[in-house]
Structure formats: C-alpha cells, structure tokens
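lol so apparently i was supposed to do this last week
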Amino acid sequence: MSGPTRARIPERTLREDRWWLAPLATFVVFAAFVVYATVRAFMGSGYYASPYLSPFYSPCLGDCVDGASDFGQPFQAFPLSAALIILIFPLGFRLTCYYYRKAYYRAFWLSPPACAVAEPHQAYSGETRFPLVFQNIHRWFWYAAVLVALVLSFDVVLAFRNAEHEWGHMGLGTLLMLVNVVLIWLYTLSCHSCRHAVGGRLRHFSKHPVRYRLWTWVSRLNTRHAQYAWYSLFSVALVDLYIYLLATGVIDDVRFF
Ligand code: FES
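anyway here it is w/ FE2/S2 (inorganic) cluster bound
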C-alpha cells in the first residue's frame, strides 16, 4: 500500500528567517573554489617555488619542473598538467564527503535548499540510483586522502629548507603549508568514514579498548567536520596562491630564519 509520503502544505516554507543565506554563501564560495582550482590545475605552471610545492600538484608525478618531483616522474609522458594526475583523489574525497554532499545538494540542486523548505523536484530517489549511488565510494577515497595527507606532510618537512635546499630554514610559505597540513589532517581524520574505519563493525567496544579510544577521539573531531572542511578548503587554495605568486615573481617569500 502506498500513501502520501510528504505533508501536504501549500506554502513552500513557513520559515521566516533568512534560510537562503547559507545555501547562497555555499554556492558562491564553492563555485569560486571550483573555478580557481580548475584554472590552476590546467595551468601546469607556477606550482613550484623552491622549496615549496603547491598542494594541487603534490606529489608531482608528471613532467614536472626541476626539484618538484620527490617521488620520481612515472607519468612523464602524460601530455597535460601534472595536477590532473593527482587531483582526482583529493577532489573525489571532497566531492563524495558526507558534509559537502549536504552543502552542495542544498546550494546547487536545492534538494532541499534548507530544512523545512520544499525542494522544486517532484521525484526523490536519494542516493540509491545511478549516478549518486557512486557516492558510496567515499570510504575508498578516504584511504587515498590519508596517503595524500602523508605526502603533504612530507612537503612541509621539505619546506624547512631554503631555496638552495639547505636545512634549518623557515619562511612564510613554510608556516602556511604547516597550517594547511594540520587542517587537512583534521579534515581527513574527522571524516565519517574514518570514524567507521576505526570503530565500526565491532560488537563489543570493551574487547577493543584501543579502537574504542581512537573512535572516541575521531568522534570528537567529527563534530567539527564541517568547519574543518571549509578551513582546509581555504587553506589549500591560499597555499597554492602564495606559491603561484612566488613562482611567477610577483612577491618574495618572507624568510623567518
Ligand atoms: Fe567528509 Fe569523509 S565525511 S571527508
């Protein structure tokens, strides 16, 4: 037997607050990031200012400039920008993120635009059919995201050098990369899939004290996952922009020591 699945209220919403503000802000910021990231990814230049490597191009596995490839160039024959080889992983991770899904379903598809506001679409199949059923791939992107975060951490270590690759130096670029990688780790470790990886599929937490402890930490981080998602989005773009401006000679790095 099938019946009406939704309340029959003629008004689109009874809300009187500015509910449209959050999806509008999400739309503007997200669209700006997508445009910026797309332009930078296809540019194929301005991503390395010794010793700094842009997170958009790390690890640099294609036909990269001297000094940018710390893991070799196995895809040297790849004809397009080296960023395109690697960006699928962090972008896929963010695109399938449970929080971002909520954000862009609301802001871009208005499905629904906010709580207690009717969506314009007639039918609703959730994420049970093609293509949205592929959102379930998120947990696999999480493993890739951990590897990418490790590589970015390694880049931060390398950033404690000067342009001639001598150790024991630090500049504003080092600091920005350090903050960025901390935010990336907070975003990655607060992921819902991480929470499941460390504490899921257990019958008794009492028999797995270490995993219980990890699950407790991740659960605490998880409550701030949305904030980490935005902060790390801004920081990754800021680090890339800073390195681009250095690489193109627009600014000079501020050296601390
Ligand atoms: Fe957001 Fe996994 S839920 S990164």
